[in-house]
Design brief:
The chain has helices at 2-58, 62-73, 75-102, 106-118, 122-130, 135-144, 151-169, 173-205, 210-266. It is an all-alpha fold. It has two domains: 1-59; 62-268, no CATH class. α2 (62-73) crosses α9 (210-266) and α3 (75-102) runs parallel beside α9. It is rod-shaped.
């Protein structure tokens, strides 16, 4: 009985020791988890703070990016390119507004002139032309104003004044073409000067390392990029203006032929 009691007591002590060890291990794991939680929170906060500036950098507006590239390209060479864009667009807007205002409903104008000429009321026909804007109406007015000189003089007046109106339609196109040529020229010039400066930096550094060459070449090529962009923008508007002028010239030519046919038909 004594031996059985001793064995039972020993087993009981072993179980108690194992329970105590398990409890201590559980408490250590819980303590480690509790201490790791604030560390993870701090790490997450730091990661969020680090990601915030990165997100701000990646969400720069187009205006900010354009401003940075302008500064990197150098104000000395980027400013002439910018001036070409400003003056070129000013002339483009002026031409587009002028040509849109010069557009005339030629068919309606010819019908009104024919009604007045048929009844012999040339003054009313001239008044109609005066109140109608556009080069076509101006040409018709010049012809009606010379009706007392004969149809031959009327035809000469229409032809001559048509050339004058065509020249007015093409006004300032030469300047727009000049800015189209100047913008990339300034860009190329800035690039060449930048390349020379890059080689000077190589000579001073005595090394052809990428860091020495890349910076200067990047700045130099920015002027060419902006110059080409300006030239492309102005060229698109220039071609639109030419198309608009061709349309107005066709209206002038067709309208002048119909106008002379009306005068020949009803002239007494």
């Amino acid at each position: 009985m004594s031996i059985v009691g001793l064995l039972t007591f020993a087993n009981f002590n072993g179980v108690m020791a194992q329970d105590a060890t398990t409890t201590e291990a559980t408490e250590q794991v819980a303590a480690t988890a509790d201490s790791a939680a604030p560390a993870e929170a701090v790490a997450e906060t730091a990661a969020e703070e680090t990601a915030a500036p990165a997100a701000e950098e990646t969400t720069k507006s187009f205006h900010q990016v354009l401003k940075e590239k302008y500064i990197q390209g150098g104000a000395g060479w980027m400013t002439p390119v910018l001036l070409c864009l400003i003056f070129g667009m000013a002339l483009v807007i002026e031409r587009i507004l002028y040509l849109n205002m010069a557009t005339t409903n030629v068919k309606k104008l010819l019908n009104g002139i024919e009604d007045n000429v048929k009844s012999g009321n040339y003054e009313a026909a001239k008044e109609l032309c005066r109140n109608t804007r556009g080069p076509v109406a101006s040409i018709f007015y010049q012809g009606l104003d010379r009706m007392d000189q004969g149809l031959e003089n009327v035809e000469k007046a229409v032809t001559s004044y048509g050339g004058v109106q065509m020249a007015r339609l093409e006004n300032n196109l030469t300047w727009i073409g000049l800015f189209i040529a100047l913008a990339p020229s300034f860009g190329f010039l800035g690039t060449v000067v930048g390349m020379v400066q890059a080689f000077d930096d190589i000579e001073v550094a005595g090394d052809i390392s990428p860091t020495v060459v890349a910076g200067g070449m990047k700045v130099a090529l920015l002027t060419t990029i902006f110059g080409l962009i300006v030239a492309i923008i102005l060229q698109i508007f220039y071609n639109y203006i030419l198309t608009k002028i061709e349309s107005l010239v066709d209206q002038m030519e067709d309208g002048s032929i119909s106008f002379m046919d009306i005068l020949v038909k009803y002239h007494k």
